[in-house]
C-alpha cells in the first residue's frame, strides 16, 4: 500500500558459540579515544579471548579500515601460535570487520568470522564490558589524549594491569593471564582447601556454604540461541560463509 509503513523486521539472534579453553573464541571491537581536536578520534582496535578474558592483541590508529584490522589479527595469530581452523572471531558488523581485505586475511589465516546483528549492541557483550572497564579506570584521561604515542602508552599500561593484576569476577577472581596459561585450576583448588579449612576451624562464623571456587569450564556467547561449540571449526565456517 502506497505510503504504508513497513512492519519492523525481526532480527534473528546470532548462533550461539562456546569455548572450553583459550584460543578458541575471540571477540573484537573498536572504540573511540578522544583527541585534543573536537570531533577527531583515535581508534582502539582490541581483541580479547572470551574463555580467559585476556587481551590477546590491540593497536591504536588514526583511521578505521579493514586493512588495519587485518594487520592486528595476523599479528595475534602469529604471537599466539594459532593454527588454521582453530579460532572463531566474533565482532560487530562494522566495515573494518567485513571489508574485503579483512575477510581475505581471515580466510588466509583459517579464522572463522562471526557477527553481531546490525544495530544490536549487546550481541558483543564481552568487548563492551571490557571497554567499560577501560574507560572507567581512574587514570583514564577525562579530557583527551595528547597524541597517538600517549594513547598507545596508556593502553599498554592498561593491558598490563588488566591481564596480569586484575582479578576478574567472571573467572573466579584469577587474572586473565593466569587463566590463559591454564593456571586457574590449581589456584582455585588451593583456595577451596583454604576456605574449607577455615570453615572447619570456626563453623559458627559460616552461615552457609563456602564460596564456589570451582573452575569455570565453559564460556558461552549468545547462550539463548541454539548452542554450538567452537569445534568443529568447519561447521562454523559453513554457517557464516
UniProtKB/TrEMBL annotation:
GO MF, one annotated term: nucleic acid binding
Limits of the Integrase catalytic domain: 18-184
Protein's name according to its UniProt entry: Integrase catalytic domain-containing protein
PROSITE patterns hit by this protein: INTEGRASE
Domain of life, source organism: Bacteria
An annotated GO BP: DNA integration
Recorded coiled-coil stretches: none
Native species: Pollutimonas subterranea
A Pfam family recorded for this sequence: rve
InterPro entries recorded: Integrase_cat-core (IPR001584), RNaseH-like_sf (IPR012337), RNaseH_sf (IPR036397), Transposase_IS3/IS150/IS904 (IPR050900)
Amino acid at each position: 500500500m502506497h505510503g504504508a509503513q513497513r512492519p519492523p523486521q525481526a532480527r534473528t539472534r546470532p548462533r550461539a558459540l562456546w569455548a572450553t579453553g583459550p584460543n578458541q573464541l575471540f571477540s573484537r571491537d573498536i572504540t573511540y579515544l578522544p583527541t585534543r581536536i573536537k570531533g577527531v578520534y583515535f581508534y582502539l582496535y582490541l581483541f580479547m579471548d572470551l574463555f580467559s578474558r585476556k587481551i590477546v592483541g590491540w593497536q591504536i590508529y588514526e583511521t578505521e579500515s579493514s586493512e588495519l584490522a587485518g594487520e592486528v589479527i595476523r599479528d595475534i595469530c602469529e604471537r599466539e601460535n594459532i593454527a588454521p581452523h582453530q579460532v572463531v572471531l566474533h565482532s560487530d558488523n562494522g566495515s573494518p570487520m567485513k571489508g574485503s581485505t579483512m575477510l581475505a586475511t581471515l580466510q588466509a589465516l583459517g579464522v572463522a568470522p562471526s557477527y553481531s546483528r546490525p544495530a544490536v549492541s549487546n550481541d558483543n557483550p564481552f568487548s563492551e564490558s571490557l571497554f567499560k572497564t577501560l574507560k572507567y579506570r581512574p587514570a583514564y584521561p577525562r579530557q583527551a589524549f595528547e597524541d597517538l604515542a600517549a594513547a598507545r602508552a596508556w593502553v599498554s599500561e592498561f593491558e598490563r594491569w588488566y591481564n596480569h593484576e586484575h582479578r576478574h569476577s567472571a573467572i573466579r577472581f584469577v587474572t586473565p593471564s593466569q587463566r590463559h596459561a591454564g593456571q586457574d585450576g590449581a589456584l582455585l583448588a588451593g583456595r577451596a582447601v583454604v576456605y574449607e579449612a577455615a570453615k572447619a576451624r570456626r563453623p559458627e562464623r559460616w552461615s552457609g556454604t563456602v564460596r564456589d571456587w570451582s573452575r569455570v569450564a565453559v564460556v558461552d556467547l549468545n547462550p539463548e540461541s541454539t548452542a554450538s561449540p567452537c569445534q568443529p571449526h568447519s561447521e562454523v565456517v559453513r554457517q557464516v560463509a
